[in-house]
Amino acid sequence: MEHIPETHIRSNLSEEEKENFRKERDYYLMGQGEVINKEMFKTLNKLGREKTQQEIIAIEIANEQSNKLLTKFGLQPFNIPTDNYYILPDEILGFGKNNPAGAFPRYNLCLFRDTEAGLNPVIFGCFAFHETLHLKNYLSFKQQQKNDGLRIYRAGISISTSQKNKGKIPKVYLRGLDEAITTKMNEEYLSILLQHPEFKKEAEWWKSMECNLLKKDYTKDKKIFESEIFWIEPSNKEIFALAHTLERRLLDYICSEIHKKKPDKYPSEKDVFTEFQRAQITGNILTIARDITHTFGKGSFRKIASYPEDWRLKIHFEALKLKRKINKS
Ligand SMILES: [Zn+2]
Question: How high is the mean pLDDT of the chain?
């Protein structure tokens, strides 16, 4: 039987209710979701298309790679069942049009758009790994208001508040950096995936002269780096590059500044990134909060945590760099 790390619940529910909630999650993890929500699972099973052998291997590798991270930070590894990954037609997906995939930690589910994620098993694998990480990151649930159901309170480093954003969805702090940490790990996964014998054809294309020339061509204006391209579709040469670019630039900048400020504690930028990963997996954000505050000044952690997730991030990022420059000189 698969096992899941303890679900943290912050609420005024009775112990019995909390226990029921934990059990509910365990059912989903074991792929026995129908016990809890028959209708929902019936619909998904009917609408989701059958996965190919390569897609199943991609999920297995996503589980293996993410489990290595759990073990690295002292947590019990666990697998998300292959059946909990659904590849669905566009019209039934509720989440944003531009989202090729989504993770639903409460149900241990990942949903993928067939028209994008299902286009090629490598693309699917990269998305599957990303969403799997969202399911295995630290999670806690909380009852925000009396008579309200349990809602995600912490996921990775991000924190939801009861405060409403644009009057509708709860405001989430640190989500941009959370996505940046998750997205940055893709490169490692891709290299493991392409070593699998079932992906021989894809690996040959990836290493081919034609593919490498295309990568060079796509990156010549230096807007993205080669390492950020995770697939070029051989049939139509469509390029697939990592999302959350600005958030990843911000994370890299923060890691590099912390490393410069504390070279003894963090001999390299990668060591700082490991600390961010630890926070993401274990939920303990105290160290990164302290390091950011020591490096960027009092109140900076709170400020960075509340950066918006849209085009305005660029302005905040520039202001942070400028402030840091002034403080250093
Ligand atoms: Zn994500």
Answer: 86
Residue whose C-alpha is closest to residue 70's, from 280, 289, 251, 286: 280
Pair 118, 145: CB distance under 8 Å: no
User: pTM of the full predicted structure?
Assistant: 0.89
Q: Which residues of the chain have pLDDT under 50?
A: 1-3, 32-36
- State in Å: Cα 16 to ligand 1 middle: 32
Whether residues 147 and 280 share a domain: the answer is: no
Q: Which amino acid is present at 7?
A: T
The verdict on residue 240 lying in a domain is: no
Torsion angle (degrees, nearest 10) of CA 248, 250, 254, 255: 20
**Domain membership flag for residue 236:** no
Q: How many separate domains does the chain show?
A: 2
**Which residues, including other chains, have CB under 8 Å from residue 128's CB and lie 6 or more apart?**
55, 58, 59, 62, 85, 101, 110, 112, 117
Q: How far is the CA of 110 from the centre of ligand 1 (A)?
A: 11
Q: Kindly give the distance from the C-alpha atom of residue 325 to the centroid of ligand 1, in angstroms, as a whole number.
A: 31
The residue segments making up the domain with residue 320 are 245-328
pLDDT given at position 142: 80
Q: pLDDT tens digit string along 156-178?
A: 999 988 766 655 667 889 999 99
CB 215 within 8 A of CB 227: no
CA of 127 to the centre of ligand 1 (A): 9
C-alpha 182 to ligand 1 mean position (Å): 7
